Amino acid sequence: MTGALATTAAVVVFVVAYALIATERIPRTAAALSGAALLAALGIVGAEEMFFSEETGVDWNVIFLLLGMMIVVSVVKQTGLFDFLAIWASKRAKGRPFRVMVMLVVITAVASAFLDNVTTVLLIAPVTLLVCDRLGVPPVPFLIAEVMASNIGGTATLIGDPPNIIIASRSGLSFNDFLVNLAPIVIVLMVVFIGLCRVLFRDAFVYHPERVDRVMALDEREAIRDGALLVRSLVVLAGIIAGFVLHAALHIEPAVVALLGAGVIVVVSRTEPREYLEEVEWGTLVFFMGLFVMVGALVEVGVIERLGEAAVAAVGDRYLLAATVLLGGSAILSGIVDNIPYVATMTPLVQDLVDATPDPQQGEAMWWALALGADLGGNATAVGASANVVVLGIAARNGHPISFWEFTKYGLIVAAVTVALTWPYVWLRYFAMG
Amino acid sequence: MRARDIAEDYPTVGPDDDAMQTAQLLAQRRLGAIVVVDDSGKPVAVLPGSQVLNFVIPQYVQDDPGLARVYDEKSADEFSAKLAGRRVRDVLSPRELRDVEVVDAEATVLEVAAVMARMHSPVVAVVDDGRMIGVVTVGSLLDHVLPSA
After folding, report:
1. Nearest alpha carbon to residue A425 among A145, A155, A115
2. End-to-end CA, chain A
3. Does residue A214 belong to the interface with chain B, where contact is any CB pair within 8 Å?
């Protein structure tokens, strides 16, 4: 199939699959995979375009970076590190509820910058429920604050949030580029977020002095299941982070760093395949593959090119306006639909915009606007990010159901405040003072 | 050999009986499970001891078994307090309330064994005309099917 017919078919398949993903009428992996299969069956893309092309094919950098980090997490998870940290922190906070929340939120944000957000909240949620139970405070505000901190913290680095991984692979920006450009504003956002928590969840911070002993009696050292494994995992993790920091200088792709790390941690942990593959979400990886093929088909038939030309023409020389629209628009859309397909679709378009921007720093600002909007917008609603959905599930299973609107009520405020704060940052850093 | 031949007398409780007393009965008599019967003597559920544990042990400790070790002895003892003021029907899982499986008094030993295997249950109620006449425990069943040592 070629020409106008192919273009129409590619667009129709893409739109239908996207609608199915957004409405969750069928599982997202099935929607992406069958969309990709249909495009192949129609002859719009072939094996060459799907598997071996950097422009139109599966982005293997993204797939293998995710796979590598999922393997690392599977091993780190077995050490009991998170249970240790959370109990230690709660004891340091002397059982004062707000201090406990601050400690847990900071741990979650820092961990999310280096590990997958979903995994981070899965690891921190059980021990949070335990601490809240001991303190006699409602756990729901703590869980909501943690997942939001995870989405904010994940924004800081290349590996913190899947949209950043996609942006990095397509733009060629390095781990340090992300760190230098996103981490400063994320730190500011975390401080503001903690202040917001104090106000939003003020009713939850009821201090029961008589219950503090119940937290102080917990023994965090018992949480470490295997001390030797913990030490080895931390050494490998440090090596992986050093690898990410140096990847641009050493000319190694981040995906290669993650795979090397995964290989080393598998060897030194001496765990079984069942254990080190436990956290690998095959469904998610296949979803990414299908998605890349569908977006690739739009590139192949020239739709993205024409949309890009239209966007460039519409922007003209109003680059600040373009960054502003990208930031705000991405935030709104990411609150409504999964931010992964959104960013996968937007990256080729934004690339055109970046190429058309004469000032390279302002061009790069387009990527940061996309990343900040997509990552932070995920906090807006209960379905805005995968981690939100996971926390709702954990809360319900533990007898503390959180409704869509209860989450969204807080989410809209947090997303609006954090996104609004990033705009002056983008403006000052890349346009006013650039 | 039929189910009625290996059925034995076994304590029963009602769905509205006190959960704590039921748990104590399981403990004192070292029972693996107890049959819950309605007013007419008809079995409505089997409550295994493991479900009592499932009820008292918080879900988050079940999700993250490593957490079980961080408790001190005193706190661990507090868990059973969750049974206070609860009834047997509160402790039963929805599945246990929905799928009660009984065997007829005339069922063969193999039929009884098949039901137990499918339900992962240590006991099965034996009924005659809808009324419970006793239970077959996994111990007595194995005793009848295994070659004698």
Report:
1. A155
2. 47
3. yes
pLDDT at B27: 92
Residues 64-103 on B with a CB inside 8 Å of A are: 64, 66-67, 69-72, 74-75
- Residue B5, pLDDT above cutoff 80: yes
The Cα B125–Cα A325 span in angstroms is: 68
Inter-axis angle of helices A3-23 and A282-300, to 10 degrees?
Answer: 150
Residues in A closer than 8 angstroms to B75, CB to CB, are: 134, 214, 217-218
Q: In angstroms, how far is CA A247 from the centroid of its own chain?
A: 21
Q: Would you say the pTM of this structure is higher than 0.80?
A: yes
Half-sphere exposure of B112 (CA within 13 A, CB side): 30
Average pLDDT over residues A293-303: 91
Q: How confident is the model at residue A350 (pLDDT cuts 50, 70, 90)?
A: very high
SS3 (DSSP) at B43:
strand
Residue A113 · residue A154 · CB < 8 Å: yes
Token pair of A265 as six digits? 């941690």
- Residue of B63, B74, B75 lying closest to A126 (CB–CB): B63
Query: Are the Cβ atoms of B63 and A219 closer than 8 angstroms?
Result: no
Note whether B72 contacts A217, CB cutoff 8 Å.
yes
- By C-alpha distance, which of B144, B143, B112, B133 is closest to B7? B133
Task: Inspect the interface and report whether the beta carbons of B69 and A219 lie closer than 8 Å.
Answer: yes
Closest CA to B52 of B74, B78, B79, B12: B79
